[in-house]
Amino acid sequence: MNRKAKPEHYFSKEPSSPSAQTEITALLRGREYRFLTEAGVFSRLRVDRGTRLLIEALPLPKQGRFLDLGCGYGPVGIAAVGSEPQLDVIMVDVNRRAVDLTKENARLNGVVVDVRWGEDFQVVKERDFSLIAANPPIRAGKQVVYSLLVRAKQHLLPGGVLCVVIRTKQGAKSLKQHLIDNYARVKTIDKGGGYRVFAAFKEESSPE
Fold first, then answer.
1. Across the strands, what pairs with 131?
2. Do 68 and 77 form a contact (C-beta atoms < 8 A)?
3. For the range 59-64, what are the long-range contacts, defined as Cβ-Cβ under 8 Å and sequence gap of 24 or more?
4. 109-163: pLDDT as tens digits
């Protein structure tokens, strides 16, 4: 009896789809970047609208530690350190192919980042991030995503911020309410193209 193979998602640990490497370019925060991408990673043909909106909206500190949670092939973290070279950037993804691409893309764009392969905070023990950014895998399910965003709070410094982008029609209203229930303050810092970017502040006194 023939059985259909399980569908492969960009949050698969070990993508098995045939390699089909492509190089794309993107203008992010005023600088042009080159990215190698492959089959089996998220938005391999272009930096998607949601990720672009997130990158441009990030309230990047001049220094400190920044976490790109679910980095894909690396545009968020690479653009962050490209804008603020003093940032200590850690990037993590469950997808091994994405992690390998991020390492190569960091070299390609001349930036230094710490790239880790594994399940989110299982490989991120630091608890002193000024900023955490995520374009969460909504297809993984609401329970997975919501748990991830709550656990992020434990890894923020006092005054730290979590920034999340989500497609408006994929549950932005309920995700924002979930953040409100778990963080001191939440605000919409950008929207457009069918997406919204939320900033969730660990403390009420966090700066704008």
1. 66, 161
2. yes
3. 59/131, 59/161, 59/163, 59/189, 59/199, 60/84, 60/87, 60/131, 61/87, 61/130, 61/131, 62/86, 62/87, 63/87, 63/88, 64/88, 64/129, 64/130, 64/131, 64/157
4. 999 999 999 999 999 999 999 999 999 988 778 889 999 999 999 999 999 999 9
CATH of domain 22-201: 3.40.50.150
Q: Could you say which DSSP state residue 120 is in?
A: G
Helix axes 96-108, 75-83, angle to 10 degrees: 30
Q: What is the pLDDT of residues 41-54, one digit of tens each?
A: 988 789 999 999 99
Burial degree of 133 (CB within 10 A; 0-12, 13-18, 19+): buried
pTM of the model: 0.89
Cβ pair 106, 115 in contact under 8 A: yes
Where does the pLDDT of residue 10 fall: very low under 50, low under 70, confident under 90, or very high at 90 and above? very low
Tell me the pairing of strands 195-201 and 31-37.
unpaired
Q: Cα separation of 67 and 55, whole Å? A: 13
Question: What sign does the dihedral 29-30-36-42 (CA atoms) show?
Answer: positive
Instruction: Express the helix, strand and coil content of the chain in percent, nearest 5 each.
Output: 30, 30, 40
CA distance 208 to 202: 12
DSSP 3-state assignment of 68? strand
